[in-house]
Amino acid sequence: MTTPNTPLWEVFIRSRNGLAHKHCGSLHAADATLALQAARDIYTRRGEGLSIWVVPSSAITASDPADKGMMFEPAESKIYRHPTFYEVPEEVGHM
Amino acid sequence: MTAASIQVSETPLVLYALRRADDALVLGHRLSEWCGHAPMLEEDMALANIALDLLGQARELYSYAAKVEGRDNDEDKLAYLRDVRQYRNLLLVEQQNGDFARTMTRQFFYSAFADPYWRTMTASRDATLAAIAAKSEKESAYHLRHASEWMVRLGDGTEESHARAQTAIEDLWSFTGEMFTVDDSERALIDAGVAIDPETLRGQWLKTVAGVLGEATLARPANDWMQKGGRIGHHSEHLGHLLSELQSMQRSFPGASW
Questions:
Q1: Which of A18, A38, B120, B201 is deepest in the core (most CB within 10 A)?
Q2: What's the pLDDT score for residue A1?
Q3: ipTM of the predicted structure?
């Protein structure tokens, strides 16, 4: 239920050995402090995280699904952008 | 009801553990009553989390009480097969949930005590109690933060939320004094360094309460007359109803497990 008093927040969690915060869901809360508490209670109950970010959903600018042709399809035909067209010398080892 | 109540030999240490276990179990059960009924999904989860923390504390304390008693009792028997007059919890924690402000006020009053209590108990000369305290103090620190944030928002929120929070404070205030009482049985444990004198925590409790209520624009009641009796089994009428629900399975199907 969305009310004017409880806006939507996006939750990002950095896991124990993760390097980056990953989006894991959203929640409703009255303000940033309560959003952080709620994120802790909802998304880290099983020891999932060591750090939490909450961001007002309204602060996120999203691409328009209707634009996906223009936005993403041109990249699909450019397979040469994948670094798979050269051989890695053996001496380099694991990359 | 087919399972009879057990008898417990309440030596000072058994009684001490039982009292804290009963606090945690009864308050945890109260919070669990919100499950599926909280004002919002997020808070439903938060209250259930806190309830589970308290249940965990209760289990460890009951297990220790049973071990110290050294008879046939265990954590389940202590929780499910004692009558209301054998329960040793504070009157505060058995008070009904009421509205959300009342539940939060009860939680705030208790957590503002439990947090410094467990932190101080980490230095107990009793290794088991010190270990339980070390685990519990991290939980109670969060419980206090959670309840404090809500007190501020309820008090400094709308006219309605302020009035409800103030009413809850007036109603529950007289149950807060019992947290600081000590009887002869506890005095011996305090002298032995096993327990701590709760009176030494009163200043900190008052400071926490004054700070949060001040920020919340809520008033501290002037009345200092305090209720007591829970620690010796003299309870309000609410605990019997709570226990009849909490114990019904084990009373009807003794020893049932799943």
A1: A38
A2: 47
A3: 0.83
Predicted confidence (pLDDT) per residue in B195-209, tens digit? 999 999 999 999 999
Mutation for testing the A interface, residue in B42, B156, B158 having most A CBs under 10 Å: B42
Residue B136 falls inside a structural domain: yes
> Could you tell me if A41 lies within 8 Å of chain B, comparing CB atoms?
yes
Question: Given a cut of 70, is residue A55 above it in pLDDT?
Answer: yes
Q: What is the CATH number of the domain that holds B77?
A: 1.20.1260.10
What one-character-per-residue DSSP string does chain B give? --SPPP-----HHHHHHHHHHHHHHHHHHHHHTTTTTSSSHHHHHHHHHHHHHHHHHHHHHHHHHHHHHTSS--HHHHHHS--GGG----HHHHS---SHHHHHHHHHHHHHHHHHHHHHHTT-SSHHHHHHHHHHHHHHHHHHHHHHHHHHHHHTS-HHHHHHHHHHHHHHGGGSGGGG---HHHHHHHHTTSS--GGGGHHHHHHHHHHHHHHTT-PPPS-------GGGT---THHHHHHHHHHHHHHHSTT---
Nearest to A28 among B40, B49, B146 (CB): B40
| pTM score of the predicted model | 0.91
